[in-house]
Amino acid sequence: MSRQVDKRVLGVCAAAMAVMIAATLALRGTDHEGLHAAIRNTARSSAFFFALFFLASPLDRLWPSRFMRAWAAAADAFLVALAVSHTAHGVFIILAHAWDLPSLVALVIYAAIYALAFYALAGRSGGWIESVSIYAVWFAFTVALGGRALSSPIYAAATAILVAGLLLRIVAGLRTAPAAA
To answer: What is the secondary structure of 42-53 as a DSSP string?
Structure first.
């Protein structure tokens, strides 16, 4: 299966990331507080880009429309934007020397994110590696956000969106699965 990354969508995502990072550092500084603010914001943008990627396919399969087709066509751009965002996240973790267990877990899932992004950039489907990586990244984001869900409605909403995304993928898979002979 051949795939193409929409470079315009990727450019908009990358520009938004650059503006967000610049604003965070301008408002919070480049000291410890500023770096930790950048860590939080890049984690949030990574989760946002992942949700855009994760929801695109099942929504397009369940409610096909011109908008959903366009969203699904841009999914690989959101995936690459996730890799860009999480790279920035990792750089800020290194700069802040924030080597706690959640940060190390986040760094470990980079391999899955990069594998997905490189498959998308190469215009290929990753088969089972892609499927395993997608759900590993889903699990990591859901656990990370879910752990904060009781302390903030934003994290609760983000967790709910990811759980709903998984349910939508299951329903879409059941609806499009071939009938047994």
So the answer is: HHHHHHHHHHHH
CA angle 38, 77, 115 (to 5 degrees): 80
- CB half-sphere exposure, 55, CA atoms < 13 A: 16
Cα R_g (the chain), whole angstroms: 17
Q: Which of 167, 163, 162 is nearest to 48 (CA)?
A: 162
Tokens coding 138? 């889903």
Please give the chain's pLDDT, 181 residues, in tens: 456 788 899 999 999 999 999 999 999 999 999 999 999 999 999 999 999 999 999 999 999 999 999 999 999 899 889 988 988 988 898 888 766 676 666 666 666 666 666 666 666 666 777 777 788 889 989 998 999 999 999 999 999 999 999 999 999 988 876 655 4
pTM for this one?
Answer: 0.83
Tokens of 167: 């349910």
DSSP state, residue 2: -
CA-angle at 117, arms to 53 and 23, nearest 5°: 70
- In this structure, how many other beta carbons lie within 10 angstroms of the beta carbon of residue 73? 16
Alpha-carbon distance of 72 to 167, in angstroms, equals 17
